[in-house]
Amino acid sequence: MNILSPSILAADCWQLGQQIEQVQRSGAKYLHIDVMDGIFVPSISFGMPVISSLRKRTDIFFDVHIMIREPERYAAQFVECGADLVTFHLEATERIQETIDAIRQAGAKVGISIKPGTPVEAVLPWLEQVDMVLVMTVEPGFGGQKYMDTCTEKIRQVRAAIAEKGLRVDVEIDGGVTAENITVPLEAGANVIVAGSAVFRGDIEENVKMLMAQISHKS
Ligand code: DX5
Ligand code: ZN
């Protein structure tokens, strides 16, 4: 199944609750929540208190993308405050197994992400242990960047490796998705598509419906 995961990094924080309701009303099942520490990436976003307070108000699936160094230190806390899935960066830790175990034991799904410069080979040894691989299609840190075409081949390679091993692992992509290019990652094998600016700039409900129509058309 193909899924749209609207990224609230592009939302208006003053109206965050209302905007999440709009996204949900338009049919989105996932919400992408970007956590940044100012160290692994050169920006700081939001953390546990924001996730906890949103969790009290909505049952939408929380797709939490943690762009933080040493994710093993905080992984379980993100689950406790409401994440359904926690995706961490392979480049951010030496303790990949520990991070996977911490998320799993806390009761959430596990995602592992690679930056545009990280080769696909790095993620292959972990495929059996994760629910999702996130192939970044921009350098993590900011919304509103341009989709990097060089990443499309990586999506293909990850999907092929998953198929070859006979696994059921989602492939998510994140960064630079627009109504014009959304079919590119889908055709390459991605099935979870993050969209920030393409959802929250302009008419949110229209944007979600239009992107979801394109996504389901490819299912
Ligand atoms: C970037 C974040 C993305 C970001 C995507 O580091 O991980 O989730 O919100 O934003 P757009 O869709 O605007 O490129
Ligand atoms: Zn993200």
Your description of this structure?
With 219 residues, this protein is α/β, with parallel strands linked by helices. The protein contains 8 helices and 8 strands, in the order βαβαβαβαββαβαβαα. It has an 8-stranded parallel β-sheet with strand order 1-8-7-6-5-4-3-2. The mean pLDDT is 98. The structure holds D-xylitol-5-phosphate (DX5) and zinc ion. Zinc ion is lined by residues 7, 32, 34, 65, 174, 194.
**Global morphology:** globular
**How many strands, which pairing sense, and closed or not: the largest β-sheet?**
8 strands, parallel
Query: Strand arrangement, largest sheet?
Result: 1-8-7-6-5-4-3-2
The overall pLDDT, averaged over residues, is: 98
Helices and strands, in order, run as EHEHEHEHEEHEHEHH
Q: What's the alpha carbon Rg, rounded to whole Å?
A: 16 Å
Helix content, binned percent: 25-40%
Terminal CA distance: 6 Å
Which cofactors or ions or other ligands sit in this model? Answer: D-xylitol-5-phosphate, zinc ion
**DSSP strand (E) fraction?**
15-25%
- DSSP strand count: 8
Low-confidence stretches: none
Structural class: alpha/beta
Helical element count?
8
List the helices and strands and how they pair.
Layout: E1 3-6, H1 16-25, E2 30-36, H2 48-55, E3 61-67, H3 75-80, E4 85-89, H4 96-106, E5 109-114, E6 132-136, H5 152-164, E7 170-174, H6 183-188, E8 192-195, H7 197-200, H8 204-217
Parallel strand pairs: 1-8, 2-3, 3-4, 4-5, 5-6, 6-7, 7-8
Bound molecules: D-xylitol-5-phosphate and zinc ion (ZN).
Short summary:
With 219 residues, the chain is an alpha/beta fold. It has eight helices and eight strands; from the N terminus they run βαβαβαβαββαβαβαα.
